[in-house]
Request: fold
Amino acid sequence: MTVASKDVGMMTMIENGNEVKRTCCSSNSGCGSSEILVEYAGNEKWIQGVINTPKGVVPVVSTQLNFSDILGSWKARWGVNRMNYKINPGLYAVGTPDNESPVLVTANYKSTFDSLRKELADINTWILVLDTKGINVWCAAGKGTFGTKELLTRISCTKLHEIVTQRTLILPQLGAPGLSAHEASRQTGFQVVYGPVRAKDIKEFIRRDMTATPEMRTVKFTTYDRLVLTPIELVEAIKVSIIAFGILFLLNLIVTIPFGLDDFYAYVGALIIGCVITPVLLPWIPGRAFAWKGWLLGFIWAVVVNLINGWPQLPSYSLVRAIGYLLVLSSISSFYAMNFTGASTYTSSSGVIKEMKIAVPIIIITVSLGMLLILLNSFMGI
Amino acid sequence: MKNRYLKDVSTLILNTEKCTGCGRCIEVCPHHVFSIKERKAEILDKDGCMECGACAKNCPLNAIEVKQGVGCAYAVIMGWITRSEPSCDCSGGNDSGCC
Reply:
């Protein structure tokens, strides 16, 4: 399911009970539904006021995040309203920009927009927000929604040529997979300059006459960066797990040795290892393939689970089940660790395919075999 | 510690003949894969390449080739299931966090 773009042309003046302020309504064919500079709900807390331009009124945004902005970002991180956390595309102002002020281009995922505006205190600038369907700059560039076509559309819809006389656009560097700077410059009439990777370096970048240091140009993936990406992995994994719990519950009605708390914590532990622990410890775990890293920690966890249960001296269950745990738990961790490739900032498509061609068959075989052993134990007590 | 991914997998190719040493690739690359040597770009760290495609797209001389793609296992699985190219399309309800 792709999030449908909001058809602004069909929008009435009242949306969700709030007055929707339209700032410019002159017609311009080619813009489709977006014949306005930007529209916004009158009660948005992050909009402080408006600024007049030759082509209409533009909302001025705050450079401080309030509680609801921070809460909104955290909700998105935990998967709540994640695919619909976006703002209307168009032109916004920070401070009191004029026709010579810089224009920063960004995506309409609200967390992206927030992380940009909070770094712009005390400067006067325009922000051109592209319609990336609520997706961040880098991912949208990979998909092509942050690209030349959308840039052209948004420039035309906001009448940017008539609002600013300077002819430079600052795009985030991570937008580069989505467009060609030379092509976009030729087509838009604006010189396209790539700014730093991180919004926090924007002011320094502008101060340095739009040059970035190698440091500003490098993508990092710190422990904190990885940690904040783990909640969504966990949430999605738990959603799938509910089905597994349902199946185990039904099996419990017919098996000799029912599934219990031991199985529950063993499974949840394997999940947390794959979705959280492996991502956080990523660079310190030996090896390179994500599936391998997850498998290693998952295997250690399975050994720990068996030891807690008194294996090998006084096992509360058989050797068959113990081996079953070794096979299943390590594979679960491996699978979820492998899934984290998508959240990482350094895995290549070719690399992921290579690792999966090896890992996926192994995971399928070991999980099947492990489950078979556990079920043999559950049903027949061996 | 630096994150490093698999060795010898990147499809990155630089055609030095065409290169004029403008440095655009160095500017857009998020992982310092390129450097300039004697007014020509050279690949300094091919294993650092994540095939994002920024360099190839932004090279004014089309001197760089790379199979642009998403390094996302979930996208690859969906690609296998739907028999299409893996695409970073996490917009679905079953999204794995790749975007």
